[in-house]
Amino acid sequence: MKDYLDFTGKVAVVTGGRRGLGKAMAVALAERGAKVAVISRSPEADELTRELDGIYLQADLGERGERTGLIAKVVERLGRVDILVNNAGFQFSETVETCTMEQWDASRSGLLDAVFELSQQAVPFMKRQGGGKIVNISSICAFREGGWNFSYGVMKGALVSMTRCMANSLAQHNINVNAIAPGIIRTDLTAQCFVKPDCSKYPTRHYGEPEDIAGALLFLASELSHFVHGHTLTVDGGFTGN
Fold first, then answer.
1. Which residues of the chain have pLDDT under 50?
2. I need a labelling partner for 99 at 20 to 30 A (CA). Which of 12, 106, 196, 225 fits?
């Protein structure tokens, strides 16, 4: 019987893969045979690189100049790119009234422009290989932004639209483009939510763990999702459906 979750021979790129959701997804892919290239703005993580049997590229994806040629560097060192996980993210605490132009520009560059540019870099390589997988990490804030992370919610909503538009033109090339919209997941960004958690609006009555998103990623990065294009998979313990 074929093992659809065997990624042996595949090369995956995970942005923001040094910790949190990114690390969980990178480790999950590596455990199933993939070589993983982690891109992060943090100093090089030697221990993580050894764990993943891959490479580590340091780049601040919010800076356009640092995004240039990143996918080509991965292909040069690992030979190909089969999976691109656009995960790197951050957020400000602001509303439509308090958001500054500096915050707006930073959010657009890091959360939207970087996804577009890295995907655009990856597509020619994927087409030559006969296909590939692009998975964008959005957020439930794309649908139910809480009022305190305005620019983040706007960009994550735009990312859902970008995912659909990319899929429309790339599906014919056997390139699947989909997104995951996590709910509250235990990471450094959500640490305050776990101090005194109020999960009453979550049908599961608990928040998520990074491995919950890794499971969704494995599905969208594998042949199991061969006929899934332009979809945003909400992984939030039932919150948005409540």
1. none
2. 196
> Residue 113: is it exposed, middle or buried by C-beta count within 10 angstroms (0-12/13-18/19+)?
middle
Domain contains 2:
no
Please write the tens of the pLDDT for every residue from 22-37.
999 999 999 999 999 9
What lies within 8 Å, CB to CB, of 15 at 6+ separation is 22, 39, 40, 61, 85, 86, 87, 88, 114, 118
Whole-number pLDDT of residue 65: 94
Task: Please give the pLDDT value at position 40.
Answer: 92
pLDDT at 49: 66
Residue 3 lies in a domain: no
190's tokens: 């959500």
How far apart, in whole angstroms, are the C-alpha atoms of residue 25 and residue 190?
17
Number of residues assigned to the chain: 242
**Active site amino acids:** 152
Predicted TM-score of the model (pTM): 0.94
Q: What is the dihedral of CA 5, 173, 113, 145, to 10 degrees?
A: -60
The number of distinct structural domains making up the chain is 1
Per the structure, the complete domain to which residue 32 belongs is given by 11-235
